[in-house]
Design goal:
It contains two helices and two strands; from the N terminus they run ααββ. The protein is of the alpha+beta class.
Length: 78
């Protein structure tokens, strides 16, 4: 699953470089994108909690680096 998520990330960052993309998916792919952005080990997936309908944001840069900007935000649900 991690390879599929990384491949999708690579396709999206290539096709939409410099643009904002909204990706709607299930919890595990979101956690995987965050894990990969942080360079964290696979077991870190079990240390993240994501609420239903939460918003997370990862910024990807031309040099290949990434930055987790937001994780599990539910303020829009209040």
């Amino acid at each position: 699953m991690s390879r599929r998520v990384a491949a999708a990330r690579d396709r999206l960052t290539s096709a939409y470089a410099g643009r904002t993309v909204l990706l709607v998916t299930h919890v595990t792919p979101i956690k995987t994108l965050v894990r990969l952005a942080l360079g964290a080990p696979p077991e870190s997936l079990f240390r993240m909690e994501l609420a239903a309908a939460s918003v997370s944001a990862v910024a990807y840069y031309a040099d290949g680096n990434a930055s987790v900007r937001l994780l599990n935000d539910t303020s829009h649900l209040r």
